[in-house]
Amino acid sequence: MIDDSRDRGLPTLAFDVIPPATRFRCAKLLAAAAAIYAVLWLLGFQKLFLNDAEGLAALLQIIGTLYSVVYAFATYVIWGQFTSVENEIRKESGALKDLLLFSNRLKESVREPMVRAVKIYARAVVETEWSALASNQRTEKTDRLFYEVISSVTNIKSEDDTERMLYERLLDIANQASAHRDERLSLSAKRMPRTLFLFVTLTASTILFLLFFYPFRNAALGVVSVAITTMLLFFAHFVLTDLDNPFEGTWNVGSDPFSELVACRGANITRRRIRCDGC
Questions:
Q1: pTM (two decimals)
Q2: Is residue 89 classed exposed, middle or buried when 0-12, 13-18 and 19+ CB atoms within 10 A define those classes?
Q3: Is 271 helix (H, G, I), strand (E, B) or coil?
Q4: How far is it between the farthest Cα atoms of the chain?
Q5: Residue 78: CA count within 13 A, CB half-sphere
């Protein structure tokens, strides 16, 4: 889940959002990179490139600029997909809330199957669909349950002009929910192209590799520079891979809008959010 401690008024440290296992891997990689540079400096390896310091600096600048551009593009695309999935979740759940809202004027015997179908579908989304989408699996169960939601609307029989107008409105809302669901599933299946991911990773690795050759005059400065660069590249890679899958990881979209539909036991539903007896 996305960290919401700010909403609860609790202080949050920057590193608190990063899993301990990820921080531990970063520490190991940072220590290894710093140790490698220190050993190479003690062996006099960087002295072989004293006359090429300007060339190495220029090469690092060129590759660093290329990495920055490609990384910014990849992050922009992934973040756009992430927010699009989040928006479609809100729109789909909002359409389902509207479905329950406008069905209040129906007879209870007619409305009850629709309410039950919506809640069963919302519960299945929360319990099974999120994990299925995270692992890029099929969503046959929720597809079937959503079809039952649509069927609960199409099975309504209007007896007069008022009910006919209400039925047309409910059918329009159901079509909107279906369109938002299709778009959500389509966006959820998209991932960063492997070629782009490999290119970003290769560029970052090249920067770190060339830094081992750079002849810093001060060994401590060289070790610190390698350590800082390793940490920044590692966390840049972490952010990119974590955001690539909207349904798992540190930053992910939540199923709260569907959980609200499941949790409500009453029938008092407003347009902005669900209000229900006993929630």
A1: 0.74
A2: buried
A3: coil
A4: 92
A5: 23
Burial of 153 from C-beta contacts in 10 A (0-12 / 13-18 / 19+): buried
pLDDT in tens for each of the 279 residues of the chain?
Answer: 444 444 444 344 455 677 788 888 889 999 999 999 999 998 988 888 888 889 999 999 999 999 999 999 888 888 888 889 989 999 998 999 888 888 888 778 878 888 889 999 999 998 888 888 888 888 888 899 999 989 888 888 877 777 788 888 888 999 999 999 999 888 888 888 888 889 999 999 999 999 999 998 888 999 999 999 999 999 999 988 888 888 887 778 888 888 888 776 444 444 444 444 434
- Per the domain annotation, does 13 fall within a domain? no
User: End-to-end distance of the chain based on CA atoms, in angstroms?
Assistant: 22
The CA-CA-CA angle for residues 193, 196, 199, to 5°, reads 150
**25 in a domain, yes or no?**
no
Q: Which residues contact 222 (CB under 8 A, 6 or more apart)?
A: 37, 38, 41, 46, 214, 216
Tell me whether residue 18 is in a domain: no
Domain limits for position 96: 32-263
Query: Does some domain include residue 211?
Result: yes
**Count of the separate structural domains present in the chain:** 1
8-state DSSP, 273:
S
